[in-house]
Design goal:
The chain has 289 residues and is α/β, with parallel strands linked by helices. It has a domain at 82-279: Metal-dependent hydrolases (TIM Barrel), CATH 3.20.20.140. The protein contains 9 helices and 10 strands. Helix 3 (90-100) runs parallel beside helix 4, helix 6 (179-193) packs parallel to helix 7 (214-228) and helix 7 (214-228) crosses helix 8 (248-259). The longest helix has 16 residues, at 264-279. It is globular and about 50 Å long. It starts with a strand and ends in a 10-residue tail after the last helix. The model has no long low-confidence stretch (mean pLDDT 95).
Amino acid sequence: MIDSHLHLWTVDSFVTGGVRSYGWLGPQHGALYRSFGEDEARETLEAAGVRGAVMVQADDTVADTESMLAVASRNPWVFGVVGWIRLDAPDEAAEQLHRLTAQPIFRGVRHLVHDDPRSDFLDLPAVRESLTMVAERGLTFDVPDAFPRHLEAAVRLARDLPELTVVLDHLGKPPITDSLAMESWRAGFRALGREPNTVAKLSGLHLPGVEYAPETLRPLFESAVEAFGPERLMIGGDWPVSTLGAPYGRTLDVLLELVSSLSPSEQDAVLEETAIRTYGLAVTPLAEG
C-alpha cells in the first residue's frame, strides 16, 4: 500500500527567529512532543510493509514545506509532498507556487483550517483566487479536521471550483459520540461526496471516546464507501499523530480489515490507485506492475 498521510517534524525547529513553529503541539501531547525524523519514518513504513508515503504539512509555514522537500530529495520512499502556501495573499501564493512546483514531488497544498481563527477562511476571495492557481497547476487541496467549522465550506469550494481536487482528510473528523452532531456531519459528508472533484482519506480515525477497532469504525467506513466509492477513497496512517491512539501497525491493521470487505479491484483503489491518481504520483500501482 501507499500511505497517503504522514508527517515529520523536528523539535529543534519549534522556535525559528523568535517565532514558534508547530504551535498546536505542546507538552500536553505527551509522547508526541518530540522529533519524528526521516529514518524513524522509513523504518516504521518498512516494518509495516508500506512501500511509500505522501508527506503532509504539519505547520502553516514555508519552513515546514521546505523541510519536507529536503527529506523527499534524500528518500525514495517519499512519493509526494503536500505543503503550505499563503492562500490568503494571492501574490505571495503565486510566487511560492512558482518556486515550489519546480520540484515535481510537490503535489498539493494544505492549510490548518481547524486552527485558523477565521471560520470563513475557505470562502475568502483571496483564498479562492489562490486555490484557482493551485488547480491550474494540477495540484490538490487537502482540508484537515473539517467538521464542524469547514465541512459545508469545503462543499461550496468543491462546487465553485470544479477544476480543483478537494481532499477531505480524516473523513472530516466525524463526531461519532454525539448523535445530533453526527447528523450534521453526515449531511455535509454526503454533500461533499456528491461533488465529483472530491476525495476522502481513511485516516486520523482515533476519535475521542471511541474504541479504535473495526467493529466501531465500520459504520464510518460504510458511510465513506457509500458517499465517495472506493475509487475516491485512500488510506492514510496519520503517523506519528496516530501513535497517541495505537502503534502504527495496529492503526493500519484496523483500516486494512475494513478495506478487506471490498472486492480485490476496490481494495487496489483504496490502498494505492486513488492516491496515485489524486496526487499524480510518479509510481506504478503494484496491481499493474
